[in-house]
Design a protein that fits this description.
Jelly Rolls; globular
């Protein structure tokens, strides 16, 4: 795994074994994950989404604590996966980084608590699997407009974004900050600990 340009985010490119029967790779390995990131991923929920071409999901995040860390991979098709630093007070606040996830390289992206996440389907029936540190809790879930001009995320120009009504109505980053809806950088560090391990996590 290698760190992305946003603190608290990594990309994993696994070794893929191919023979006459097909392919095999390790989707997630706790020991390797911990050695690379210094963190533990406490699995509370696993989600699977299937999206038509152009579907744009996000930018989603959860309030901290406890937030929701995610380990994301595309098991069919391809998506442009985007991590956004929405932590108020962060040195990289407002910055984003994109990684192509597909069923060829089998890359995965990990984003820690407090970071925003979005992706766009680059192929029909693109299927994404998320390993989540916390379960879905509607009262703690928030969104940012993925088409916010101030963020300037470089979504593919040849695709028309397909958004849910909820995502389409999400506030801009500036609006969310003004309303006090964003997690703070300090709160994220305090919750995760300087090494990224959850405070109070017995496995840390």
């Amino acid at each position: 795994m290698r760190p992305l340009g946003i603190e608290g985010a990594w990309v994993d490119t696994p070794r893929v074994f191919t023979d006459s029967r097909g392919r095999f790779h390790e989707l997630f390995k706790d020991e390797q994950f911990h050695e690379s990131t210094g963190r533990r991923l406490g699995l509370a929920q696993a989600n699977c989404s299937r999206s038509v071409l152009g579907t744009l999901r996000g930018i989603h995040y959860a309030s901290v604590p406890p937030g929701q860390a995610k380990y994301v991979t595309c098991v069919r098709g391809a998506v442009l996966d985007v991590v956004v630093d929405i932590r108020a007070g962060s040195p990289s606040f407002g910055k984003w980084e994109a990684v192509r996830l597909d069923d060829s390289t089998h890359r995965s992206v990990y984003l820690s608590e407090g970071l925003g996440h979005a992706f766009m389907a680059l192929e029909h029936d693109s299927t994404v699997v998320y390993l989540c540190s916390e379960g879905y809790a509607p009262d703690r879930e928030y969104g940012i407009d993925p088409l916010d001009p101030a963020l300037g995320i470089a979504w593919p120009e040849n695709l028309t974004p397909r958004l849910s009504p909820k995502d389409a109505a999400a506030p801009t980053l500036e609006e969310a900050e003004r309303k006090g809806l964003l997690p703070s950088y300090g709160a994220c560090l305090a919750y995760c600990g300087k090494d990224g391990s959850r405070m109070g996590d017995p496995r840390a």
